[in-house]
Amino acid sequence: MPMLKCHSLTPLERDDLKKYLVFLILSLMILSFIPPVAYADNLGFIARGIGKTLSSVFQIPRSLLQNGAHAFPLGLVYGVIDGSLKTVTGALSGVFDIARGGAPYAKYALLCV
User: Fold this and answer.
1) Which band of pLDDT confidence, cut at 50, 70 and 90, is reported for residue 9?
2) Alpha carbon distance 3, 22 (integer Å)
3) DSSP-H helix ranges across 1-113
4) The pTM is what?
5) Contact (CB, 8 A) for 48 and 98
6) CA distance 72 to 49
7) Tens digits of per-residue pLDDT, 34-68?
8) What are the φ and ψ backbone dihedral angles of 107, each rounded to 5 degrees?
9) Is the backbone of residue 34 left (phi > 0), alpha (psi -120 to 50) or beta?
10) Who contacts 96 (Cβ-Cβ below 8 Å, separation ≥6)?
């Protein structure tokens, strides 16, 4: 059975790899000091609405896991009902947040028509 040989890097490849790693580490250090962007009023509503709408899908499994451990049959039934209500309310409130954030930009739609 032949032995596998490890590929060794040439000096030129090592230098390129070192430059790449130094650039990557320095850029990550610089980016770590930049504070997160605080959304303005309208964009904040849009971002929050998208988050609520997308995360509302996971409310049923979350409620099943939380409530299923209490009483076996009734906990699961309560988890399904509670998760369904949280899914609907989360999706609707997310849609309303998106509409509230996008309403000021509706006046610009006439320019595109």
Assistant:
1) low
2) 34
3) 11-32, 41-55, 59-67, 72-102, 109-112
4) 0.58
5) no
6) 34
7) 555 555 678 888 888 888 888 888 888 888 888 87
8) -65, -25
9) beta
10) 49
